[in-house]
Amino acid sequence: MNKKTIKFNFCGFWDSFNPKNNLFTNILSKHFNVEISKEPDFIIASNRGMHFEYLKYDCVRIMFMGENISPDFTCFDYAIGFDDIQFNDRYFRLPFAFYSDDGVPLKFEQLTLEQAKEILDKKNYFCNFIYGHKSSHGLREGLYTELNKYKEVICPGRFNP
């Protein structure tokens, strides 16, 4: 069976991003012949490169955002991102926290409760809590205080309670 050829390109990705071997091309190549082209039918743009570079492409624009930045559907036809939003078939939620920079799914080791407790007992502190100023409602400070009752919380921001 002959697969349809689709022409893609990428812009705005990080330096180590490989256009021929990544999450997108690996999935799409199962169903299509994927050609990386300077005149693509589809451009996938991210936020790490030159700003607005995607505007030079006159094709279907797909925003890929691994950060907590909302898609602008006046500039993009489709988006893949962090936000938990609904926008018909134009948006797919994919938090990038579970993938490496090359789009490879991260593998997490399943710990037993005993193993987790052992690791936690060896730690000198519970977590980092970084913020720059007091909150007007006191919730930040309250959370810090309650967490600190359990185990020391390191607070390296400008505001240190």
Structural topology:
Elements: E1 5-11, H1 23-28, E2 33-36, E3 42-45, E4 60-64, E5 78-81, E6 91-93, H2 113-122, E7 127-128, H3 139-150, E8 153-154
Parallel strand pairs: 1-2, 1-3, 3-4, 4-5, 5-6, 7-8
Coarse morphology: elongated
Radius of gyration: 21 Å
Q: How much of the sequence is in beta strands?
A: 15-25%
Unreliable sequence segments: none
Instruction: Look at the structure and name the CATH superfamily of the largest domain.
Output: Glycosyl transferase family 10, N-terminal domain
Strand tally: 8
The H/E string reads EHEEEEEHEHE
Overview of this structure, please?
This protein has 161 residues and is an alpha/beta fold. It has two domains: 5-98, Glycosyl transferase family 10, N-terminal domain (Rossmann fold, 3-Layer(aba) Sandwich); 113-154, no CATH class. The protein contains three helices and eight strands; from the N terminus they run βαβββββαβαβ. Strands 2-1-3-4-5-6 form a six-stranded parallel β-sheet, with no helix packed on it. Strand 1 (5-11), helix 1 and strand 2 (33-36) form a beta-alpha-beta unit. The longest helix has 12 residues, at 139-150. The termini are far apart. The mean pLDDT is 86.
